[in-house]
Amino acid sequence: MLYQRSSRLFAEAEQVIPGGVNSPVRAFKAVGGTPVFIKEAKGAYLYDEDGNKLIDYINSWGPMILGHAYEPVVNAVIERAKKGTSFGTPTALETEIAALAVSMVPNIDKIRFVNSGTEACMSAVRLARGYTSREKIIKFAGCYHGHSDSFLIQAGSGAVTFGTPNSPGVTQGTAKDTLLAQYNNLENVKALFAANPDEIAAIIIEPVAGNMGCIPPAEGFLEGLREVCTANGALLIFDEVMTGFRLAKGGAQELFNIKADIVTFGKVIGGGLPVGAFAASGKIMDYLAPSGPVYQAGTLSGNPLAMAAGLEMLKALNSDTKIFERLEEKTAYLEKGIHKILLEEEVSHTINRVGSMISVHFDKKPVTDFATAGNGNNDTFKKFFHGLLDNGVYIAPSAYETWFITDALTYEDLDYTLNAIKKVAGTL
Ligand SMILES: *Cc1c(COP(=O)(O)O)cnc(C)c1O
């Protein structure tokens, strides 16, 4: 495949945008080469500036769960735009999407909309700190909760891909309030609570980690966190920016039957527009301004275009009773196919999968936390990535990323992908 136009566009972008991109992992730094510039997309396919057609396994890093340019969303945005794009006043639309989200997700009474997953997680932590009058939080190495200061401590994908787990610009003062634990290690968490009695406001976790590849929670791990939080008066924050409205209608809380105290959303909830949200019981959410003392705001929060897109997306997911089953079946089909091929070609690998989140790690040891996720960050992955790209299959350009399966994928697309993988696996 040719990427001439993309190369030229990237060179032009580098002149006026740092690194040529508005979010680092897009830059292909981890795999080498030039990022592909996309011109348009429909369903499961991306079309780049050089005229290449790519089957998309990133799907805008999650949101396009029903495929690109999904018509109900596109039409809703067009119709809304004609009526004005922002008012800075309440709208009926905000209540409509809030009520729908609250009805779909367990254990939440109220939800506030923001403009990104970062904002949602940052605000959730402030709310937890305000509610508990405590300052420290626990996060897990390799989990990503957006780029706000408190979270840029071993933060997974984007951050680790570039070997800068701790970003300059994050102060020591901020870093000292973020305690780091290992994913799937409950003893580690208990030790932190023992060492910091009555100081920990919350644990924030990706209930299925998705920013160090896909890592499922070990049996009993999330239950253990729930118990430890309750026993110590800390809140459990599920960062469901990736898992929300993807693993089930009610996200990981529903899938694992665990009650979090605060839940954050992003990605799917915006239908491809910039949306994040955080939600909890009425008691906790009423701590927020203007009903309570914890301040949080946004000029464009609840923006009508974003809300119209999100509402259509949630309606579609809410009314299609088989959607999550189909996603599960398609992703399981892919998993089985890839495993068979890599075995036949004698390529060392581990595949992790939960529902429609899947990652292939080129190392045969189990991948259960940040340290083991690093085993698969190797030249085999880079060859695999570029081989697939040259064969029209677009996976995330980092060994630390999850693939996101969209319902727009047909079994023909999946077979095409498996064929491409077979071709590439022979060269690894
Ligand atoms: C993507 C992501 C975020 C950040 O969301 P943005 O919209 O990129 O700010 C936070 N948490 C998780 C789990 C994510 O996957």
TrEMBL record:
Cellular compartment(s): Cytoplasm
Pathway: Porphyrin-containing compound metabolism; protoporphyrin-IX biosynthesis; 5-aminolevulinate from L-glutamyl-tRNA(Glu): step 2/2
Transmembrane segments: none
Gene3D superfamilies: Aspartate Aminotransferase, domain 1, Type I PLP-dependent aspartate aminotransferase-like (Major domain)
Protein EC: 5.4.3.8
Complex formation: Homodimer.
Listed name of the protein: Glutamate-1-semialdehyde 2,1-aminomutase
